[in-house]
Amino acid sequence: MRIAIYGAGLIGCYIGGRLAAAGGEVVLIGRARMRAALAGGLTLSDYTGARLGSGPLPFAEGPEGAQGAGLVLICVKSQASAPVARALRPHLAPGALVVSLQNGVSNADVLAEGLGRPVLPGMVGFNVAEQGRGHFHQGSQGGLHMGVDPRLPLDLFARAGLPLTLHAEMAPVLWAKLLMNLNNAVNALSGLPLREELATRDFRRCLALAQEELLALCAEAGQPLARLTPLPAAFLPKVLRLPDPLFRLIAGNMLKIDPLARSSMADDLALGRPPELDAINGEVARLAARLNREAPVNARLTRLVDDATTTAARWSGKALLAELQRARAG
């Protein structure tokens, strides 16, 4: 099976490189900048100390790179889903399986509408950082989750060290990942690596406010959340508020992150790219609107990150917590 990775960014290059190292026939589709960065091959590593490499992979700068692929993994930012679907549609093989590996809960539907065919939802549960030309590092725990489809090459993913967890219903998984992704905005505003930010109680209390808002809306909407951590989703805000010593004792696994890892939204701010706000905090706002409710904490986080794209402002935990508490109080 030929596998096309549409979106040769951090996640796309890491997953594509792992699949290629395991014997998969992989082509990356991305920008010219990444083609140049990968000219010498890929180096892949993770937080456990594992390290492997592969030679240069076939690379295309346009959707024609997906021609003949039996599996197409979409790894672009959520805001690119609709244009990517339009560009990709004429190049897909009739029986190709398309999988969305993107943040947010609606990308598979957006892609399906543009492609005129079903798209399998997926979820990436780990963080990847670029550490120099062609070096991609998995900085946190987590795995790959996908819907069920007999065309998935399960053995290849297992050989690549990326075994798939399959779900008959992906919506609870995607909403649970969205709950975790609410930290992206907090991390971006902190200016700190993820581990340092999550080790700081005031920043964790900011995340707890955002998560409580989404949890209440999901409960009202009857939307279940999958259990992606040892703790049920509903317990997370309480644990996040614990004093630092108790947090490390009870939820130390949340701090098992590479010390340099940052959220993708923090990377976007640093590189001057549009942050992926609409698919994360914006999704909370849309759910609130459907229920005739408001989501003031996530709305304020959206505004602050948007402001930070031009001001480069970064917040202390104390100041950000006070700002979000004022937003919640109205």
Could you explain the architecture of this structure?
This protein is α/β, with parallel strands linked by helices. The termini are far apart. The strands form two sheets. It has an eight-stranded mixed β-sheet, with helices on both faces. A four-stranded mixed β-sheet has the order 4-3-10-9, with helices on one face. The longest helix is centred in the middle third of the chain and has 21 residues, at 201-221. Helix 14 crosses helix 15. The protein folds into two domains: 2-167, Rossmann fold, CATH 3.40.50.720; 173-329, N-(1-d-carboxylethyl)-l-norvaline Dehydrogenase, domain 2. The protein contains 15 helices and twelve strands. It has helices at 10-21, 32-37, 81-88, 107-115, 154-159, 171-181, 183-190, 194-198, 201-221, 236-240, 244-251, 264-271, 281-290, 296-311, 317-329, and strands spanning 2-6, 25-29, 42-46, 51-54, 59-60, 71-74, 97-100, 120-124, 128-130, 135-138, 144-147, 164-167. The model has no long low-confidence stretch (mean pLDDT 94).
Largest sheet: 8 strands, mixed
The fraction of residues assigned to DSSP E strands is: 5-15%
How far the N terminus sits from the C terminus, by CA atoms, comes to 54 Å
Radius of gyration: 19 Å
CATH topology of the largest domain: Rossmann fold
Oligomer state equals: single chain
Protein structure class: alpha/beta
DSSP helix fraction? 40-55%
Order of helices and strands: EHEHEEEEHEHEEEEHEHHHHHHHHHH
Tell me, rounded to a whole number, the average pLDDT.
94
The CATH homologous superfamily of the largest domain corresponds to: NAD(P)-binding Rossmann-like Domain
Number of strands: 12
